[in-house]
Amino acid sequence: MTVTEDAATTQVPGPEKEVGKARKRKEDARLITGRTTWTDNMVLPGMLHLSVVRSPVAHARITGVDVSAAKESPGVVTVLTGRDLAEEQGSIPCAWPVTPDMKNPGHPSIAVDRVNHVGEAVAVIVARSRTAAADAVELVDVDYDLLPPVLDMEEAVREGADLVHDDLGTNTSYHFVFDAGEAGTGGDTEQAFADADVVVSRRFVNQRLIPAFMEPRSVVVQPQGDNFTMWSATQIPHVLRVMLAMVTGIPEHKLRVVAPDVGGGFGGKLQVNPEEILALLIARRLGKPVKWTETRSESLMTAHHGRDQVQFIDVAADREGNVKGLRVRLLADMGAYLRLITPGVPALGAFMFPGIYKFPAYRFECDGVFTNKVPTDAYRGAGRPEATFAVERIMDELAVELGMDPLELRRRNWIQSQEFPFTTVAGLEYDSGDYDAATQQALDLLGYSELREEQRRRRESNDPVQLGIGFSTFTEMCGLAPSRVLGSLSYGAGGWESASIRMLPTGKVEVVTGSTPHGQGHETAWSQLVADSLGVPFEDVEVLHGDTAVAPRGMDTYGSRSLVVGGTAVIKAADKVVAKARKVAAHLLEASEDDLEFSGGKFSVRGTPGSGLSIQEIALAVFAAHDYPEDVEPTIDADATFDPVNFSFPHGTHVCAMEVDTDTGFVKIRKYACVDDVGTIVNPLIVEGQVHGGLAQGIAQALYEEAVYDADGNLTTGTFVDYLVPSAADLPHFDTGNTVHVAPGNPIGAKGVGEAGCIASTPAVVNAALDAVRHLGVSDIRMPLTPERVWRAIHQGGDGGDRATAGSNAYGGAQTETTAGVSTPQSALGGDR
Amino acid sequence: MIPAPFEYVRPTTVEEAVQAVAEGGEDVKVMAGGQSLIPVMRLRLAAPETIVDLGGIAELRGVREEGDHLVIGAMTTHAEVVTDPLIAQHARLIAEATETVADRQTRRRGTFGGALAHADPAGDLAAVALALDAEMVIAGPSGRRTVPAREFFVDYLTTSLEEGEILVEIRVPKLSGDWGVRYEKFNRVAQAWSIVAVAAAVRREDGHIAEARIGLTNMGPTPLRASATEAALAGAPATADAVASAARSAAEGTSPSSDLNAQADYREHLVQVLTRRAVTAAAGL
Ligand SMILES: Cc1cc2nc3c(=O)[nH]c(=O)nc-3n(C[C@H](O)[C@H](O)[C@H](O)COP(=O)(O)OP(=O)(O)OC[C@H]3O[C@@H](n4cnc5c(N)ncnc54)[C@H](O)[C@@H]3O)c2cc1C
């Protein structure tokens, strides 16, 4: 170790700040090329492969399962049925009992005597190769005694409806109520409505979506003595480990869970999957490593879905446009079972329906409803997109009713910048922001007045292509979550996050984070944070994550929490490292701690130019441990855990200009501008990327995506031919901007950006389309706005109606029966002449 | 997404291919670009015993002139069609439609012949072949025969190819005279198949429309010609009104299906709008 004698170096200012730099993501090369540790890339000696035989029917009693032919198939080791695993499989856990009397039928990983949705596992093939396992699937013969499928929520809650689970006696899992009057956060809602000049009521359908992450789910389990290591393409290795222990009874300390590089999730991998449980049980039973990787068909059909609410929303106002009350009743589709946070998703949304507006009264009621479909659960935004959609749509409807400009109505009712912190009618304390500033900037980005002028011209000339402009002025609760708040909502865990920093002898830094990334760029952002805090080069920081043996504590990644909560834990750990290093530096520099200043990664004695020790040098000194203060341990490593006191509240204004071809119903985004306030921006490139991706998904809900089931409960949109995920070619250029109001709740000042685009964009897009054709008598169009629906709404009235439930012609109509593992008589017909 | 086991043969001449098909057992399939066949095999909707891959047969690839015809080898890929100078000169409608097929990756593998033999009603090229009065040259155990496009497309995913036969090339009459063309495709996202599409070739003469050939995609189990519209346009003045009025009969004689993207009545409406647009553009109006 040499301490430079050159006086000039102490004068050199520290490295330029990393936070705020548009760094390219250091993890991308390996992620994009796929030359990395995707779970399916894992090969272990002697590894066996699993293929799951799945139910082709939505609701039935299983009267027999014949696996004899499958067992004879070449390469097959064994075939297991629900009966074989019934004693040990337990139930997929539900961590969020939103009401004390919530009905949970339990969720077997493999069906024993009943199936409740198409795609439910009924048998598992274990074979020496993946192909051998796939070949044997068709040889399993299952007899089903059909039961009527329950598919429509509004019918499911009627008296005398067929039941998904007879033993529950009802299809309603729970009835959750939040009433601001009762909670003391608002006035009496019924009174507010009784006294109102104007009431506008709507029924909106927030359709079922499929998360459609890029990397299919995959799991590998290796038994070693009485220990098990599971690699899984999961968002939540830490939560999964706890849950695996609770479900299977394998002690937690005998389980290690690794999420290697994970290719996307969007909430879809925030789950304890049946196949994870099955892989663990089978590895234990056979004492051999096993792997299961889903096919894309299985992924679309059996990984949990998102959204799926029927929303009844009423708004009360006076004639001047001051809102007086908000009332929301939801039917939320749970699907056939409750998975990890299935019931909590709509309940979380309860707090976001009031949006950015100062409603004096608010009541929310939600029925969680069982149907014979795959369960719903978290999907990018989880409850908040649904709420934002409803409130931003109804504000437009109210504006129409009042004959007011939709932006003027919003302005009149939103929280003013000087009113922060502001406690809403839902009891949340919004932290900071300026809705007016964001809106003004967004209008400028859009070129608002020219487009309004063009809209007028097109309307006057009766142009077949009409133009509309739609707004969404939104906020969301991020940084999930203050543990005490989660406790008050009966959630089964906390919302803290953990980090450790290890200073290696050569001065390099390992950062261990508990918030496991699955594509967000944590490695880059955390390196930027640490580079600034410790004054070390960005390149000298390595971020470790995802392995419970390496990163033992964590709550993982969802709810735009990673930077806000996980990043803060990293900063706090770094502060502790500096504090520990300060003691050592003082000792080595023979100075008092109080005389040391730390800047640019270096401790120096105030007023003594040329003196100093870098934190990297101190790392080597404590490693050698030849000379350190007597009363301290020879390490400057540190851990920190951060539990936020409040959520953070990003906000923004999204404006969409939409062209509607009234001849065909085709809608085309002409221009899209958004200004998001996500607090401090650590890496503008990552923020921009998150906004773009979020916009793509939110626009996709508005225009393209919908999980459609046919009358028998088959998923019609079972391939990407029929489930339309847009590509860059289908999306417009995005004009994005930011305002920055630092979040007061964390030292970074960040609010979270993972979900903003997805939450905000959907209503802006739908509002824009409606604005284009409202003068033609259209007041609602059901999502997604297929050209057919738009055309019908214009020419036949109504909201565009139901779509036909046959898949498209293309591919030879290969839609419903397209699932590996689902073999039906129809399978033989399709596809080929 | 793993196909059932199958035998694989890769002949290098048409004769060998015909032979291989004859010897391939009960359920033998020829494979061109595999872009339609492989997905249905991976989904196990098809489980052929033998695959005869045409990819090694050089003579099936490429475009040449034969008098007033272009001859397009069945194994010419979409990407080759899009950039071929002869097609650009004499059959631009094919290139225009092919550009709308799928995505770049698929266009590099998928073939003109494969698309026609597959006869997917939502596929784009069959309607174009029909509009241009193409002929299919077919090789089989008993030699070669030529079938006009009108007789080639028989039903949903069904052509007049008999068991053991292979489509070897497609003969397309060159368009001579003052022709304009347009492929008007309607779909929801860029890489998707047509919900409805209209292929139009229009010959103008002295301010009139002398002749119009209009092929319809996805308006029934097979590609169709919009005969009533063609008749109404023959000799009509080249005006927007005349085109609009002729386009109103574009749905006559069609039998579109109802699916996720469109119900039949909406397709019948769309085809009129798209025919109007395609003919208007092709006529240079
Ligand atoms: C993602 C995707 C998007 C697509 N989008 C479109 C689109 O927008 N529009 C469109 O038109 N198409 C689309 N396609 C289909 C594409 O054009 C295919 O290339 C085409 O349909 C089949 O051509 P192929 O060469 O791949 O044939 P293959 O898949 O190899 O064969 C298809 C069928 O034809 C038979 N066959 C092939 N060649 C011959 C021959 N010479 N003689 C006898 N039988 C033969 C095969 O046995 C098989 O039954 C898309 C495909 C994909 C994968």
Outline the structure in words.
The complex is a heterodimer of chains A (833) and B (285). Chain A is built from 24 helices and 28 strands. Chain A is globular and about 85 Å long. Chain A is an alpha+beta fold and 833 residues long. Chain B folds into 3 domains: 7-56, Uridine Diphospho-n-acetylenolpyruvylglucosamine Reductase, domain 2, CATH 3.30.43; 58-173, Uridine Diphospho-n-acetylenolpyruvylglucosamine Reductase, domain 3; 181-282, 2-Layer Sandwich (Enolase-like, domain 1). Chain B has helices at 14-23, 37-42, 78-83, 85-90, 92-99, 104-109, 112-118, 125-131, 149-152, 227-233, 240-247, 264-282; strands at 7-9, 28-31, 50-53, 63-66, 69-73, 135-140, 143-148, 153-155, 158-159, 166-173, 179-186, 196-205, 208-217, 224-225. In chain B, the strands form 4 sheets. Chain B has a 5-stranded antiparallel sheet. Chain B has a 4-stranded antiparallel sheet with strand order 11-12-13-14. In chain B, strands 1-3-2 form a 3-stranded parallel sheet, with helices on one face. In chain B, strand 12 (196-205) and strand 13 form a beta hairpin. The longest helix of chain B is centred in the C-terminal third of the chain and has 19 residues, at 264-282. The mean pLDDT of chain B is 96. At the A-B interface, helix 5, helix 23 and helix 24 of A face helix 2, strand 9 and helix 12 of B. Bound molecules: flavin-adenine dinucleotide. The site of flavin-adenine dinucleotide (FAD) has 30 residues of chain B, from strand 2, helix 7 and strand 10. Residues 29-37, 54, 74, 101-102, 106, 110-111, 113-115, 117-118, 120, 123-125, 161, 166-167, 191, 193 of chain B line the site of flavin-adenine dinucleotide.
